[in-house]
Amino acid sequence: MDTPEETVGDRLRRARRSHGWSQKTLSQRLELRDSTITRYENNQRKLTLDVASKLATELGIDLYWLATGKLRASDESTLTLDRLTAAQSLSVKVEEKAQTLRILLSRELGRLKRLATTS
Hints:
- It is a single chain.
- By secondary structure, this protein is an all-alpha fold.
- It folds into two domains: 1-70, lambda repressor-like DNA-binding domains (434 Repressor (Amino-terminal Domain)); 71-119.
- Helices cover 76% and strands 0% of the residues.
- It contains six helices and no strands.
- Helix 2 crosses helix 3 (34-41).
- The longest helix has 46 residues, at 73-118.
- It is elongated, with a radius of gyration of 24 Å.
- It starts with 7 loop residues before the first helix and ends with a helix.
- The mean pLDDT is 86.
């Protein structure tokens, strides 16, 4: 959840980092100077509507969220559904990994038992 003191620049930085992009990468994608992104993130320069819209599109974020830090009611339900879907997917992957580990441990235990009986 956003903190009350979070600024547009903070949200922009968070969105950029969530993609693993540097300021340089984002500036290149938008054909802006690196220093411009730095100024936006440090709240030293105000975003124009045009640039904010381009940023929102490039980062896959809602323009309303970027400007206000608030989600719309429909966005909250989508976000919850997205998180649930991601959690279910992660649960399946964890179970698959656990099954693989059980098989490997069983094989290793059998190997160790055979070694112990031959010694």
